[in-house]
């Protein structure tokens, strides 16, 4: 077949430009991408349609081919993702390239996007998250903590930064399964409102609040943040601004400003781009995420977060990078995912299994190698007297 010779030429091109301990197997044939005794990764071509993905490789194309099952891979996930980046980054050769959105945010579109991602099934998430099902970057104070310990430390780190005190009110925008509001009510004695657009999360968090007997201190609502009319002493936004859209950030932070009391504080915990000139992850990773994982998700640069906070009438008080922490968090999730792979396949089916396998391991790589980052940004209303500011960050680490 003609495509056999195309693959031979393509593999030779890879060997010359970016050799890798990988092997491609198809129709009883095999070709190696480098010199080695044993391949780290073996790719098995199942259909001839894999040709268009391989000869003009990109992360979204390779991911889609794997999701569709036109080829399979064997090898450690870290090595598989390394190979995907090596192929995609080396895919600029015009000879082989020749062979080969804009998302409008609204209440309805945002609700549909959230439900697509978070309403897969609670049983699915329980198979790879920590026992409290905290689905955001953990905080490894020493690097030796378990995932469960690090997630609790993350919540405490946020709540301590916000200087919570008994009797205050706290709004958690995008409250997930309720871990943050539960901890805030139990440890800090505050009154909490948690809002989400995910029906699964709303129902599960409501059950947890009832089971803990905290109905007098915690309310969970299935509600858009734009429809909240109350004001609060403290606001936490964890993993939420990625869903707002870059153009919507000034209005989002203005809405947070409106919901804060004059002496209130807010904290935004969100993923950001590293390249200040780009709004899309490189090599097609952003297109894969948009199509299969986070429809409508957009990542700003941290500079854009700070600028739009100011546009929203907020003064930035503190900025902390947690990139290393998210690389470790995602690696832990990915290990749990692999450990429970058969149960996950039974729960969500082969296609979703493959989508999330690529997503988790690919994101771990991206945070480890400074492709994307994540920041916690603490702020309050702009224009406050300087005497209201803390002299140091010491209070954030008080036990």
TrEMBL record:
The species this protein was found in: Chromobacterium sphagni
Family: Belongs to the CFA/CMAS family.
Residue ranges constituting the DUF7884 domain according to the UniProt record: 26-87
Residues annotated as the enzyme's active site: 363
GO process annotations (BP): lipid biosynthetic process; methylation
Name used for this protein in its record: Cyclopropane-fatty-acyl-phospholipid synthase
Gene Ontology molecular function: methyltransferase activity
Entries under CDD domains matching the protein: AdoMet_MTases
InterPro entries xref list: CFA/CMAS, CMAS, DUF7884, SAM-dependent_MTases_sf
Keywords: Lipid metabolism, Methyltransferase, S-adenosyl-L-methionine, Transferase
């Amino acid at each position: 077949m003609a495509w056999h010779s195309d693959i031979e030429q393509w593999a030779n091109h890879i060997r010359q430009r970016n050799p890798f301990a990988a092997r491609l197997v198809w129709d009883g044939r095999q070709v190696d991408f480098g010199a080695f005794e044993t391949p780290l990764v073996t790719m098995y071509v199942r259909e001839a349609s894999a040709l268009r993905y391989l000869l003009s490789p990109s992360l979204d194309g390779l991911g889609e081919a794997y999701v569709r099952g036109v080829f399979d891979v064997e090898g450690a996930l870290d090595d598989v993702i390394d190979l995907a980046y090596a192929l995609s980054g080396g895919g600029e050769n015009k000879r082989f390239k020749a062979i080969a959105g804009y998302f409008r945010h609204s209440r309805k579109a945002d609700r549909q996007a959230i439900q697509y991602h978070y309403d897969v099934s609670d049983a699915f998430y329980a198979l790879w998250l920590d026992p409290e099902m905290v689905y955001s970057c953990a905080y490894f104070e020493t690097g030796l903590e378990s995932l469960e310990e690090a997630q609790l430390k993350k919540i405490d780190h946020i709540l301590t930064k916000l200087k919570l005190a008994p009797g205050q009110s706290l709004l958690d925008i995008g409250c997930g399964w309720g871990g943050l509001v539960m901890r805030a009510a139990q440890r800090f004695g505050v009154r909490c409102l948690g809002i989400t657009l995910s029906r699964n999360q709303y129902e599960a968090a409501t059950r947890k609040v009832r089971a803990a007997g905290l109905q007098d201190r915690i309310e969970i609502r299935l509600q858009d943040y734009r429809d909240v009319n109350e004001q609060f002493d403290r606001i936490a936004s964890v993993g939420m601004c990625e869903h707002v859209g870059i153009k919507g950030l000034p209005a989002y932070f203005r809405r947070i400003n409106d919901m804060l009391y004059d002496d209130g504080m807010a904290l935004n915990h969100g993923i950001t781009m590293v390249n200040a000139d780009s709004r899309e992850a490189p090599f097609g990773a952003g297109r894969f995420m948009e199509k299969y994982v986070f429809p409508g998700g957009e990542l700003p640069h941290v500079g854009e977060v700070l600028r739009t906070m100011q546009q929203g009438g907020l003064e930035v008080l503190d900025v902390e990078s947690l990139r290393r922490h998210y690389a470790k968090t995602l690696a832990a999730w990915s290990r749990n995912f692999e450990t429970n792979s058969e149960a996950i396949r039974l729960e969500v089916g082969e296609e979703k299994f493959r989508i999330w396998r690529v997503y988790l391991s690919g994101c771990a790589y991206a945070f480890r190698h400074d492709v994307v980052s994540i920041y916690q940004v603490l702020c309050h209303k702009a224009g406050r007297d300087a005497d209201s500011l803390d002299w140091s960050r010491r209070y954030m680490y008080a036990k």
